[in-house]
Sequence to fold (376 residues):
Amino acid sequence: MSNEKFKKRILVLGCTGSIGSSTLDIIKNQPEKFLCCGLSANSNSKKLDELSLLFNCPSTLTSKDGYDGIKKLLEETKPDIVVNGISGSAGLTPTILTLERGINLALANKESVVMAGPLIFDLAKKNSCKILPVDSEHSAIFTLLEQCKLENVEKLIITASGGPFRTWQSEKIAEATLKDALKHPTWNMGTKITVDSATLGNKGLEVIEAKRLFSFSIDDIQVVVHPESIVHSLVRTKDGIVYAQMSEPDMKHPIIQALNWPKVENNFMKPFDLTDTKDGKRTLTFEKPRTNDFPLLDLAFQAAKKDNCHPIAFNAANEIAAWAFIDEKIKFSEIAETVEHVMSKENLWNKVVRDLKDIFEADELARKFAKEFLKV
Fold:
C-alpha cells in the first residue's frame, strides 16, 4: 500500500537553480519523507521535462505561463510547503499567491521580503501560515532566536564571506571582470547572486531582510566578514554572550531545516565536526567589512533605516546594474554608482507602501532611473 499520504508534498519553484537543485537532492535522498508534487523553471523547458520524469511529477510550469500559471500550479499540486527559489523580483508574485492560500513558504527569494515585507507578513498572519527563511544567514538567526528566545536577544550579527575581492586593492576591484566576480571562494550559486556577493549587495539585501523578518532595529544589526563561511550568523544576548550557528557551507542545511520545521530531525547530511579537516584543525576568522570599497552594504543600511520605498529602489537599481555587468555592458564599479544615483532621489522613495500597486510603481521607477543612468 502506498504511503504517499504520509509524505510532505513539496512544490519547488525555480527548480533548475541552486536552491531548487538542492531541494530536489533532499527529496531524492529522503523519499520516505518528502514528495515533489510540482516544479517550475524560468525558461529551461528541457531540464524541466527531465526533472518531471525523474520525480514522476507531471505538474510543471515555465515563467512564460505567468500569474495564471502559478495559480493553476498551486491549485493542481496542493502542496504542504512551497520552496521559492526563484531569483530576483520575479519571485514576489509566487510568494503572494502561496501565502494567500495559507500554504507554508520556505523562502529563498529575499526580494519578496525586501520589496513587500510588511504586506507578505500580514498575508501570512491573516492566513495562518509560516514564512520559513532559507537563506543560510536568516535560517541561522531564525533558529538562534527560537533557542535563545527573542526577548533575550539584543543584536543580530550576519556573517559575510567577503566574496572573491575581499583582499583585493581598491584600484583592482574597480576593474574586476565578470570572470573574476564569479569565482566565489566558498559558495556555488547562480550568476546574479554570485555577482551580488562580490559587491556585498547580496549582504545588503540580507540586512534589509533581517530587519523585516525579525522586527529588529537596523541599529541592532551588524555585518562581520567571515571568509570560511562556517558560522552562518550569530546573536548577542543581553548579557553580552554571543551564540553562533555552524555548519559546512551547503544550502541543503537551511532547506532541510525549513522542510522539517517545527521538528529537528536526523537527515542524510554529514554531521558537522570542527576537526574533520585534512590536517585535523580549523581556523575561523572575523573582520570588519570594507565599506569604502564595497559601498552597497552601507547603501543597504541607509535604505533599511529610511524604509518605505527605499529598499525597493535599492533592489531594483541593483538588479538592473548587476545584470548590465553580467551582460558585460558596464564596469564592476558602476554597479554601486548606479544604486547610489537612484537612491539619491530621496523624495521619491519616502512614499509609504500601502499595497502592491505602490510596490510595483516604485520598482518600475527605480529601474527606469537605473537604465537612464547606465544608458542601457
Summary: Residues 356-374 form the longest helix (19 residues). The chain has a mean pLDDT of 95. The longest strand covers residues 34-41. Strands lie at 8-13, 34-41, 60-62, 81-84, 104-107, 131-133, 153-160, 221-225, 231-237, 242-246.
